Amino acid sequence: MAHSSKPRKNSKQKKVGGRKAPIDPVNAIVKAAEGLKRDGHMVNASNISLITGLPAKNVEAVLKSSGRPSIIIPNPREKLILNEMRQILTDALHSPDLEGIRKKSKDIYAYRYGLADGQRHTLKETAKKFGVTHGWVRAIGTKINKKMRQLPEIQRLRIDSKN
Q: How far apart are CA 122 and CA 145, in angstroms?
C-alpha cells in the first residue's frame, strides 16, 4: 500500500468551541503517533495536531499532564543537543561541588530527570521507585537545581543559550 502524503484525520472527534477536539486527548495523541510512525511520517507535534485537532503547543502539555513519557521524537540535531546536555548535567551531578548531597538524593535526581536512561519520570513514579514522598522528590530537585546553577559548567550553558 502506498503512503499518503498527508497524515490521516482522526474520525473520533467532537466539536468544542467551533473546533473539533478529540474525546480522549491522551489516547488520541498516542494513536495518532502510532499511525504516523506506521505510515512513515515524522512523529512531531504539528503532525499530531493535524490528526487530533489539538493545537500543536497543547500536544506536549497533554502528554506531560497525563504522566506519560513524551512520544514525540526529536530531530537528530535536537537529540544530539539533548544527549550533550544530559552528559553535562550528569558530570555536574558528580562534581566535587555537590559532595555534600547524599548518593540516594543524587540517584533520585538522576532518575527523575532521565540522566541515567534518557527517560524522564514523574514525581509519582520516582517516589514509588525509591520509597519516598512526592514532596521529598520535589525538594531534592529544588535543592540540587539551586546548587547546580552555581556551577561554572552550568553557567556556561546558560550564557551559550542566550547567544
A: 17
Q: Which residue reads 513514579 in cell numbers? A: 125
Look up residue 48 and give its three cell numbers: 499530531
Provide the grid cell at 156.
Answer: 556556561
Q: Which residues contact 58 (CB under 8 A, 6 or more apart)?
A: 25
Instruction: Give the per-residue pLDDT at 16.
Output: 45
Q: Sketch the domain layout of the chain as residue ranges.
A: 13-66, 76-162
Q: pLDDT per residue over 99-129, tens digit each?
A: 889 999 999 999 998 887 777 888 899 999 9
Domain 76-162 part of CATH 1.10.10.10: yes
Question: Residue 71 in contact with residue 64, Cβ under 8 Å?
Answer: no
pTM (whole model) above 0.70: no
CA torsion angle for 158, 63, 65, 93 (degrees, to 10)? -40
